[in-house]
Model the fold of this input.
Amino acid sequence: MASPAEAASEAPSEGPEEASTGGPSAHLPSLTAVRFFAAFVIVMRHLLGRFAHPSVADASALFLGTDEAVTLFFVLSGAIITLSWSSEERAAGFWRKRAARILPLYLLFGLLSAVWLVHQDQPVDLLDVVAYVTMTQAWTARVFALNNPAWSLSCEAFFYLVYPAVRPVLLLLATASSRAVAVIFLLVVKWQLVGYDHFRPSVRFVDFALGAVIGLHLRSRGGRRIPPLFGLALLAAAYAAVVVPSLRTTTSLTPSVFLGGAGFCILVLARADQRGEATGIRWAAPLGLRSYALFISHYLVIRVGVAAFSRAGWWEGTSSLEAWVQIGLLLAACFAVAELSFRFVERPSERRLRGAPDRVELVAAGA
Done:
């Protein structure tokens, strides 16, 4: 163009790692792992897109599904927020916790991006700054203001704003059949919205709403057991239909098909985590904890790294092998900055702003 049993020692959470379901806390590390995989698609697309070598271009094609990765983030966000919502929580408290979760890194990398633009003698438009600070860039033509990937946080801010008003309507879906009808309705709406500006929060709200319906369903126990591998395979197939040339489809149904696959996979993985079953992806949960820091910082890191290579005379005319070495170095830098941001900014600032024990929660990200 967007955090377990294994990670429990890192931090308790009301995100995918520890979500209240109206009873004992349920550890959902697999959803945290999925968050990392979605972020990785976005990072690799932005990174590989900087290189013109044929071998890199072939690899880059595997990461064309950045919009699908954003969809996955939004569905995860809706599901986790609904799953973790307490009936005693007021709207003001909900908004305060959301702000504490996303704003520190969002504002930090917006500021650093502006400083970088000035350093590069590029103009910083005051209206871009206003749009970024107010998180309204996705509503305007300034969707890529300052830090390009941050447009999805503009969508997320809208979801957070309206969620307390939406939740009473959501709770009317008291039966499994009513929730199934709601999912079908939202998939049809997604299909009908094809062709509209997919950056707009009002358009992407469908993704979040479907996730919220799934989260509501997850608050009820029971249901038929579905092997986690089946959910992962369905999500992989839906993604392959977007990125694999021999399978790629461009019909108006493609976004709905992926949205349905994403929602089903999240439901299956969360159920498996609630039952304590192995899913095969929990090893990535610690990386998922750092996925927001990776997402919000990577674009600037890549910009700075490419500029550094160019100044050193190690950019134009490099061989394919050298290009892959550069990719490895830039990817390592992205992960290093994400780790530092997570440990020294995200976690401590959230703890101070929330006035509560350190907690890590799922947020969306986009590309």
About this structure: The chain has a mean pLDDT of 88. Residues 29-354 form one domain.
